[in-house]
UniProtKB/TrEMBL annotation:
Family in the record: Belongs to the PNP/MTAP phosphorylase family. MTAP subfamily.
Reported function: Catalyzes the reversible phosphorylation of S-methyl-5'-thioadenosine (MTA) to adenine and 5-methylthioribose-1-phosphate. Involved in the breakdown of MTA, a major by-product of polyamine biosynthesis. Responsible for the first step in the methionine salvage pathway after MTA has been generated from S-adenosylmethionine. Has broad substrate specificity with 6-aminopurine nucleosides as preferred substrates.
An MF annotation (GO) of this entry: S-methyl-5-thioadenosine phosphorylase activity
Pathway: Amino-acid biosynthesis; L-methionine biosynthesis via salvage pathway; S-methyl-5-thio-alpha-D-ribose 1-phosphate from S-methyl-5'-thioadenosine (phosphorylase route): step 1/1
Gene responsible for this protein: mtnP
InterPro entries the UniProt entry points to: MTAP, Nucleoside_phosphorylase_d, Nucleoside_phosphorylase_sf
Binding site for substrate: 184, 208-210
Catalytic reactions on record: S-methyl-5'-thioadenosine + phosphate = 5-(methylsulfanyl)-alpha-D-ribose 1-phosphate + adenine
Phylogenetic classification of the source organism: Bacteria, Pseudomonadati, Pseudomonadota, Alphaproteobacteria, Rhodobacterales
Binding-site positions, phosphate: 11, 53-54, 86-87, 185
Name of this protein: S-methyl-5'-thioadenosine phosphorylase
Annotated EC: 2.4.2.28
Native source species: Rhodobacter calidifons
Length: 288
């Protein structure tokens, strides 16, 4: 199967360089409009699609990001793997601003987001025990290290609703929960990518110490954007290195991300809602 890499850029990352034959493509989805058009081209011969999570000009808040449309659009374009790049606050001393963190677990504290592509008329339960893809994650960490970046692996991401940053009491509490980094978008995306049978890896850039740290002031947007801008070239560099590490002739995911729906759908075929089934054409067409 042909491999195609989707890249989702977070706060401060609204485009990537070096895509050959690149053009911004409008993608229609049954879940509404994606955050923006998708930049499609080739990097090192591999088809790549880039989508800025908040849209160019940062139009969407973490709550209003159209996560369903974004994941559907990337799947519909043929993406098999998604690398998400995000800005995060650090909840630990040793994860310093400018470091990168490969996230492999999430704690969900969001409250305002539709959690699933599925629902009444087609109920499905996928596993999120390991919500990210170890194969793609290892390659992303390798690409980041080759770019000279400091990369921590095995991190837990606390996904909060926002848009306000946390209180000190929350920030301190999340540290006691074992969370390593904090952001507002990661889990909403990861769980939908799993339902869409996409390999998904989350490489987060540490931009601040949130507000728990006695020797650092509370986070603000200026600080986040300054750190993202200072590291933007490195982030683009690691993305540019990733395609060369991926097999263009894609082998099935050894962790089963691309078969997540095989035993997940509960609703009997004769009880399924035809409208929902039609909407699920790209996401779940393999099993419906
Ligand atoms: C600009 S600070 C808060 C903002 O930054 C992060 O965005 P993303 O995850 O898309 O990189 C965080 O989740 C908030 O949306
Ligand atoms: N401290 C923080 N809290 C939530 N989201 C963030 N994104 C970057 N830094 C953050």
């Amino acid at each position: 199967m042909q491999c195609m890499l989707g890249v989702i850029g977070g706060s401060g990352v609204y485009q990537i360089d070096g895509l050959e034959g690149a053009s911004w493509v409008k993608v229609k989805t049954p879940w509404g409009k994606p955050s923006d058009e998708v930049l499609v081209g080739r990097l090192n011969g591999l088809p790549v699609a880039f989508l800025p999570r908040h849209g160019r000009g940062h139009v969407h808040s973490p709550t209003s990001v159209p996560y369903h449309a974004n994941i559907d659009a990337l799947k519909r374009l043929g993406c098999t793997d998604i690398l998400a790049v995000s800005a995060v606050g650090s909840l630990r001393e040793d994860y310093e601003p400018g470091h990168f963190v490969l996230v492999d677990q999430f704690i969900d504290r969001t409250t305002q987001r539709a959690p699933s592509f599925f629902g009444p008329g087609c109920v499905a339960h996928v596993s999120l025990a390991d919500p990210t893809c170890p194969r793609l994650g290892a390659l992303a960490a390798q690409a980041a290290r080759a770019e000279g970046l400091t990369v921590h692996t095995g991190a837990t991401y606390l996904s909060m609703e926002g848009p306000q940053f946390s209180t000190r009491a929350e920030s301190r509490m999340y540290r006691t929960w074992g969370a390593d980094v904090i952001g507002m978008t990661g889990f909403s995306e990861a769980r939908l990518a799993r339902e869409a049978e996409l390999c998904y890896a989350s490489l987060a850039m540490v931009t601040d110490y949130d507000c728990w740290h006695d020797s650092h002031g509370a986070v603000d947007v200026a600080q986040v954007i300054a750190v993202v801008q200072a590291n933007a070239a490195a982030a683009r560099g690691l993305v540019a290195r990733l395609p060369a590490l991926m097999d263009p002739d894609r082998q099935p995911c050894p962790h089963g991300c691309d078969r997540a729906l095989t035993r997940a759908i509960m609703t009997a075929p004769d009880k399924r809602d035809p409208d929902l089934i039609a909407k699920l054409d790209a996401v779940a067409g393999r099993v419906l």
